[in-house]
Design goal:
Number of helices: 8
CATH class: Alpha Beta
Helix content: 25-40%
Strand content: 15-25%
Strand order of the largest sheet: 7-8-9-5-10-11
Shape: globular
CATH topology: Rossmann fold
Radius of gyration: 19 Å
Oligomer: single chain
CATH superfamily: P-loop containing nucleotide triphosphate hydrolases
CATH architecture: 3-Layer(aba) Sandwich
Order of helices and strands: EEEEEHEEHHHHEHEHEEH
Largest sheet: 6 strands, mixed
Length: 281
């Protein structure tokens, strides 16, 4: 597999006028996603991301948490290639990414099975293989028996699971989640978190999950990355020491509650620090 390393200079042009292809050293397990001194400024002059350094390896689950509008989702868009950084390095294999958006974006005229097969269809997989893989991932997300339903007949949680299954079909090594459960009630959200961790245990992908829920961030992640207000910077990284698989009872564990409190304090301190910095500039 070839890993694409995109390096941009301060002037915004690609170093060497083209992306550099960096082959993986034999036997080395490189990060599935790496940001190094990565910055993004939009054409209107808005600085969205400043000097972000972050690595995520296969078998790691990283949650990004920060104030609304700080640039968390922007990091996912840069990783996927939907946006291009202004400077710094981004290293990942963009042909091996699963991306789950906040809106499931299901096609209303296609059944559950047909929606799940969509990406595989676009990649040219044979029909029999698509059907077999769809059955496999629908079983993983608990939707066996719903193959012939249309999106209008599904609950919000079911639509989110279809979206996950669709991205999971190609077995990506890097999975990006942009607040996929934000619009779902708390009980079903926790159930989806449990299901996602089961998938993570099976697939061992590198996961990056954007959320505004501190409890969700800590329950899912092996590391929680606390972001500042815009421009997004890494304010702190908190290790979550509990092994996988994790059960629902972890949410009530005293040590887990202490970690959520710690992350909450870091988030507040980061937000206040960013406001004070903005006031001095």
């Amino acid at each position: 597999m070839m890993t694409v390393m995109l390096r941009k200079g301060r002037g915004g042009g690609l170093a060497g006028n083209a992306p550099r292809l960096a082959p993986e050293p034999a036997g080395a397990e490189l990060p599935r996603l790496s940001f190094h001194q990565m910055c993004l400024t939009f054409p209107d002059g808005t600085e969205a991301v400043r000097n972000v350094d972050l690595e995520v390896r296969r078998g790691e689950f990283v949650s990004l948490i920060g104030p609304s509008g700080c640039g968390k989702s922007t990091l996912l868009r840069i990783a996927s290639g939907l946006l291009e950084q202004t400077s710094g390095e981004v290293r990942c294999d963009r042909a091996d990414i699963g991306y789950v958006f906040q809106d499931p974006t299901l096609l209303p005229w296609r059944t559950v099975e047909e929606n799940v097969q969509l990406f595989a269809e676009l990649h040219g997989l044979p029909k029999n293989e698509r059907k077999a893989r769809a059955a496999e991932v629908l079983e993983l997300v608990g939707l066996t028996g719903s193959e012939a339903k249309f999106p209008k007949a599904l609950s919000g949680g079911m639509r989110s699971r279809v979206s996950m299954a669709r991205s999971l079909l190609l077995h990506p090594s890097l999975f990006l989640f942009d607040e996929p459960f934000a619009a779902i009630d708390e009980i079903n959200r926790e159930r989806l978190n449990d299901s996602l961790l089961k998938l993570f245990g099976i697939e061992k992908f590198a996961g990056v999950f954007v959320t505004h829920s501190i409890a969700e961030a800590c329950f899912l992640a092996s590391r929680v990355v606390v972001m500042t207000s815009r421009p997004a910077r890494v304010s702190a990284i908190v290790d979550v020491p509990f092994p996988y698989p994790r059960t629902a009872d972890l949410r009530y564990d005293k040590e887990f509650v202490e970690i959520t409190k710690h992350v909450s304090r870091l988030l507040l301190d980061s937000h206040l620090g960013s406001r004070q910095e903005a006031g001095r500039s």
